[in-house]
Amino acid sequence: MATYALQIAGLVLGGVGMVGTVAVTVMPQWRVSAFIGSNIVVFENLWEGLWMNCMRHANIRMQCKIYDSLLALSPDLQASRGLMCAASALSFLAFMTAVLGMKCTRCTGDDEKVKGYILLTAGVVFIVTGLVVLVPVSWVANSIIRDFYNPMVDIAQKRELGEALYIGWTTALVLIAGGALFCCVSCCNEKSSSYRYSIPSHRTTQKSYHMEKKSPSVYSKSQYV
Predict the structure, then answer these.
(1) How far is 212 from 214, CA to CA, in rounded Å?
(2) How far is 28 from 151, CA to CA, in rounded Å?
(3) Could you please report the per-residue DSSP string of the chain?
(4) What are the transmembrane regions (predicted)?
(5) CA–CA gap between residue 84 and residue 49 (Å, rounded)
(6) Which of 128, 142, 186, 205 is most buried as measured by Cβ atoms within 10 A of its Cβ?
(7) What is the pLDDT of residues 35-81, one digit of tens each?
(8) 105 burial type by CB count under 10 A (0-12 exposed, 13-18 middle, 19+ buried)
(9) Euclidean distance between CA atoms 179 and 122, whole angstroms
(10) pLDDT in the model for residue 12
């Protein structure tokens, strides 16, 4: 029962991580305008994402424009787009693999050892996905902070950390936690199965005892002759 609860918890964390990965990929709030110095125009907010940039006017109207070319992006955003697309595909693959390895799933049979290997694969893929999400989010955050404190960068070009980065860090931790749970479930299943096969059952022991008691030895047969 405890193992099944861990499976459910891991699947929920994996599902949340999958949704978070897709959300971070499509969100435009990777870089947001910084209101510092003379740049205090608070009626306009500029958002820069992986696919588009948006201009929001006084919290009323928002205009978004998709990038005309991939080369128009900075190198960190170019790499982040590819990594986040790969992470979205990996998270979906890990989630579907975890569903196949669940105890309540019947299409993969009832062999707990096979399902343990399936859950182990899903857990490893979830952990890899979390690391893949962590790399672009941290890379973009590092470039934002570096440019923010660089005196050579114009104040109008400086940006702050957007909401997508914070959601990305949270999503990476959720994915890693879900993967760790699936790995623990797989290890517990493997240990329980090995323990079950190593200890003989009470019925087998009792049956062997009666067989030894009923069959007389060769020495006793020679005495009767």
Answers:
(1) 6
(2) 26
(3) -HHHHHHHHHHHHHHHHHHHHHHHHH-STTEEE---TT---TTEEEEE-SSEEEEEETTTEEEEEE-S-GGGS-HHHHHHHHHHHHHHHHHHHHHHHHHHTSTT--TT-S-HHHHHHHHHHHHHHHHHHHHHHHHHHHHHHHHHHHHHT-TTS-GGG-EEE-HHHHHHHHHHHHHHHHHHHHHHHHHHHHHHHHHHHHSPPHHHHHHHHHHHHHSPPHHHHHHH-
(4) 81-105, 117-145, 165-188
(5) 12
(6) 186
(7) 765 555 556 788 888 999 888 776 667 788 888 888 878 888 999 99
(8) middle
(9) 7
(10) 93
In this prediction, what percent of the chain has a pLDDT beyond 70?
Answer: 75
When pLDDT is cut at 50, 70 and 90, the band that residue 218 belongs to is very low
Please count the residues of the chain: 225
pLDDT at 193: 53
Dihedral angle of Cα 109, 110, 113, 115, to the nearest 10 degrees? 60
Q: Is 216 left (phi over 0), alpha (psi -120 to 50) or beta?
A: beta
Cα dihedral 57, 62, 63, 69, rounded to 10, equals 110
